[in-house]
């Protein structure tokens, strides 16, 4: 990793209010101050999915670059793919501040940002301009707080963005937009997927789910996604649950919790989706991934790819080459010639587990 920001600025950023620190980090990325990862890719980690080359399975999850203003600098940090958004049809301010909280003792975050963003018209040209990019790019789409009509708005977003990205993520799982998560119900989800049908035949559509669904509701999402032509799922978004083990007093703040406490739930849900979909969906595990061992555990549960956000906030850009290195070492230790050889080895054992919500 070259560049001064990773080594020097992280401890300083962590003393600043979290949303301000995030704005500075994004600015530094845009100015080229965040460094780049020059370490070679481990060919064992590469995969071709959706006809695209993913040099490694570690992706940046949605929400970090909501306005797609740092696509290339983020792609230089060593990720295997990057997802921007959530993009809404129109610009909106999001919820009142403060709305992002660091739960440092728990290595967790709570956010109730509520999709602040510049809206499709401002963001689209940036995405279109990133046509010649080194990595697959996903765009995550969501709804405005006011005046949304789900089928119409998701379709307009998908139509505009599809020609410019490698996949689209249907976000029906953010806890901070009233009513959004209700769109996971089978009838609503099926109607939205039907509105996207012809777009999805050219550009893969992935459904991102909440971790707060019970097993039966989650199974219905997987089945609806399959029946509706989705090509994959991202499991999972932030949780509205507050595990008793949280130590930070900020745990009482409202919003979506991210970080390590999501990991086990996300892994179990992913295994369930892997069993139900039997290879028909590309599965992206997301929630609390901090190490190469975590990434491998998700792959063993059935994931093709993983994404992270919170660990990147706490550990900075040096995390990405480290996690790739750890993943390579874990493959060697397990005797796997390639990442794919580990995929799904634990699906059956986790998929039997139900969970309480
Ligand atoms: C500050 C913040 C903002 C987020 N914004 C979005 C978003 O706009 N869209 C989305 O689909 N997920 C969003 N997420 C959820 C992440 O993409 C991810 O699903 C979740 O944080 C779990 O991964 P992690 O534990 O590695 O952070 C956000 C997460 C955080 C912490």
Q: What does this entry look like structurally?
A:
The protein contains 13 helices and 13 strands. With 357 residues, the protein is an alpha/beta fold. The protein has one domain: Aldolase class I (TIM Barrel). The strands form three sheets. The protein has an eight-stranded parallel beta barrel, surrounded by five helices. A three-stranded antiparallel sheet has the order 5-6-11, with no helix packed on it. It has a two-stranded antiparallel sheet with strand order 1-2. Helix 5 (150-161) crosses helix 6 (186-195). It starts with a helix and ends in a 6-residue tail after the last helix. The mean pLDDT is 94. Residues 61-63, 66, 85-86, 100, 109, 111, 113, 115, 140, 171, 174, 208, 237-238, 258-259, 262, 286-289, 308-311 line the site of flavin mononucleotide. Flavin mononucleotide binds at residues 61-63, 66, 85-86, 100, 109, 111, 113, 115, 140, 171, 174, 208, 237-238, 258-259, 262, 286-289, 308-311.
